[in-house]
Write the structure tokens for this entry.
Amino acid sequence: MSALPVPADAALPAAPPRRRPVIVLVLFLLLALLPVAVSVGLPAHWLTLTTRALIFAIAALSLDLILGVGGLVSFGHAAFIGIGAYVTGIMITEGRGEALLILPAILLLCAIFAAITGAVSLRTRGVAFIMITLAFGQMAFFLTQALSGYGGDDGLTLYERSTVAGYDLFGSRTRLYYAVLVALAGCYILVRTLVASRFGRVLRAARENATRVTVTGYDVGRIRLIAYVISGMIAGLSGFFLANQTEFVSPAFVSWQRSGELIFMVVLGGVGSLHGAIIGALVFLFAEDVLSGWTEHWKVIFGPLIVLFVLFTRGGLVGLLGKLGVARRD
């Protein structure tokens, strides 16, 4: 008796139930109300700090797509932030500060860089993948140092910000904040939609058993490369906003330490939880700000705290909130 054919989707995990994560709605509502709170007495520093945290939340969200969903630990993700920041800085310096020109250039260059480096890196797995992504990240770091015409080691100071269709959208801290918040919300919806689709189910299944998924007819390498390219493009967007907020571009944006911080943010929030990446970035940046105000050696305190939190809290902050009945994973 011949065996019945097995549908390709049989190898895939069930699609996550369509539900509205209340924690995400509450989170974005609170973030939207922050400028109002600042206008009635909350320290203005909070608005600047939160803007920076949301910028890194975009990058952490992009990393969580390949790390939390795809199981790919990239230690060179800051290279995409650097591409976004340097393209922004160079184009503003050359008198082409229009965001409608800068953003397509960033997305294109990030896609090309991700496609080339991903095609090489994704031939490996585990520690080898980590080391190759680290090597590509360091290549980008040394390239930025070699840009002597645009600051080199000293970085590049920007004397103006990007415009949007000729409008000075980023000239106000409040307008910049809301622009970043809207971009983060758009990226969250995009990534969540991808994760809930068949594409995301294949990516998640490949993390568990790539051989089984390949046998069912899916091209795992192609799926992972597409995810890697999308992730890089989203991270490049965070570089655009980072350059506009700081009005300064530096090789430090591309360093391996920055890539490590992004991984910490994802782990702190909860690997595989998209809103966890946002929460992790917010907590990371605020904790960094508080501890650095206490002592210049704040990293000596912060490092062990993160290690202890990861060791004794399963699933990061989202896992902790889940135990308290406040949130569920994506």
